[in-house]
Design goal:
This protein has six helices and five strands. With 200 residues, the chain is of the alpha+beta class. It has one domain: Nuclear Transport Factor 2, Chain: A (Roll), CATH 3.10.450. It has a five-stranded antiparallel β-sheet with strand order 1-2-3-4-5. A hairpin with a 2-residue loop joins strand 3 and strand 4.
């Protein structure tokens, strides 16, 4: 497990899916090289602490599943650019140590899905109330986006390849359109050995 990007870093838990190797070795279509977003790129309006605390005590939903890709089509340039923008700024917020801003890229359900049992409002207040602590330059995370797909009904999926001093990891992300951008509805992390061939 990787105690790094996305919500897993905050709650010290990674959501792992029991997928076969074949589910992760589809032919990759490059959508850009790895970039290491600077913390200054984290500009989204942050969530409030209260909007996260209110989730404590809520029944935990079933782990998200990989949606069926049947009928899906490769995303056009505009959709791919929108998804890439989410990936880049979300990682910028991680590199900035600004988790309330990073949370703004996720739905309540996405946050709740990896919130460990027993987490209290006091735990969250203590953690999220602390000033953001940017990562040192040598410890920052990089991201590349692969295989952006549009599914029937409008959902969008993509692989976010994350690279940091510990290695390269794959996150399968589901998004939906909201306002003039996209919001992450689930992200599922995989062990390093299951990264797509494009990660090499």
């Amino acid at each position: 497990m990787r105690p790094t990007h996305c919500l897993a870093v905050v709650f010290a838990v990674c959501l792992l899916a029991g997928l076969s190797r074949g589910a992760l070795t589809q032919e990759a279509t490059p959508a850009g090289d790895f970039v290491t977003p600077d913390p200054s790129e984290c500009r989204i309006e942050p969530r409030t602490i209260e909007s996260v605390i209110v989730l404590t005590g809520t029944p935990v939903p079933a782990p998200p599943a990989i949606p069926s890709m049947e009928g899906g089509e490769p995303a056009g340039a505009d959709v791919a650019a929108g998804v890439t923008a989410v990936a880049r700024e979300s990682v910028a917020c991680f590199n900035a140590g600004d988790f309330l801003r990073q949370f703004a890229f996720y739905t309540d359900a996405a946050i709740l899905a990896i919130m460990p049992p027993g987490l209290t409002a006091e735990d969250l207040t203590d953690f999220l109330g602390a000033p953001p602590q940017p990562l040192p330059e040598e410890g920052r995370e990089s991201v590349a986006v692969r295989d952006v797909m549009v599914l029937p009904g409008g959902r969008v999926t993509a692989y976010f390849l994350m690279r940091n001093p510990e290695g390269t990891f794959t996150t399968f992300v589901t998004l939906e359109e909201r306002g003039d951008g996209y919001v992450i509805t689930s992200d599922i992390d995989f062990a390093a050995e299951f990264t797509t061939p494009a990660a090499a």
